[in-house]
Every structure is written in structure tokens, then in C-alpha cells.
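We append the chain.
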Amino acid sequence: MSKIYFEDIKVGAKTVSKTRTVTKEEMLAFATKYDPQPFHIDEEAAKNSIYGGLIASGWHTAAIMMRLLVDNMGNQRAGLGSPGLDNLRWLLPVRPGDTLHFESVVIETRRSQSRPDMGVVRSEVKVYNQKDEAVLSFNSIGMMMTRPA
């Protein structure tokens, strides 16, 4: 399969990822290491919280989204990474057993003025659970190589 370069990406293009089910064990492991708040790591404390039960760290949800993104891209894209993202929002809690996927829609493409061998692609991204409820949203900024001459 040939590489996908900046010129191949069109505004309005939609990508839907495969799914991934979140386990309680991975939620606890991630939160214990990176976000040890009681509603992420202690089932009893989580029951008595505003969430009524254990929830994933938002950062864990973001990391799962990133893994889904990379798995979806494979080695097809001539990607150069990202300078960041905008408008990150955790919309609903993710719970053990939730099955997540993302949907991404390209909202802007522009060639870099300072680096003619590079373009910037902006996309609206949402992560959904198995009920098709959005649990995470953000606007991504991706840098891509232009097609070689």
C-alpha cells in the first residue's frame, strides 16, 4: 500500500477506528502509576464519589485514543507528529468494560509557509463508548510530509 501524504488528505474526510474494551485491571494500573485519585484507584471511595463507581483517568482515555489512532494509521501515513491539540474535554466517565472507538473528521488542511515539505491537518476527534455516547473530544493538529517531487 502506498503512503498517504499531505496532498491526499481532504477536508471532510472521516476516519472511524476499531474498538477497544477497557478493563478494570488496566484502569487501576494506569491510575495507580499516573493519576492516583480515589475515584480512579479505590472502588469503595469511588462508590461514595459523585461518579458512583470506579472510573478511568481521563489521561488513560486519551492514551487509549492515541493507541487506537496509531493502530488505525499503521505505517501508511507520512506523519511527522503533532505540536499539540486544542479543546480537550472529558465529556463522560469511562468505566470498566466500556468499549471505545474514535471518529475523526478533517476540518482544515494547509501547507506550511516556512516548511514547504510539510503540511498541517486539523481534525475534530471524538471518542465514543459502546452506547455511542461521546466520552472525550478534542481538535487535533497533525503535521505531515508533502509528496516528494
Q: What stands out?
A: Residues 6-145 form a domain with the Thiol Ester Dehydrase; Chain A fold (CATH 3.10.129.10). The longest helix spans residues 58-73. DSSP finds four helices and six strands in the chain.
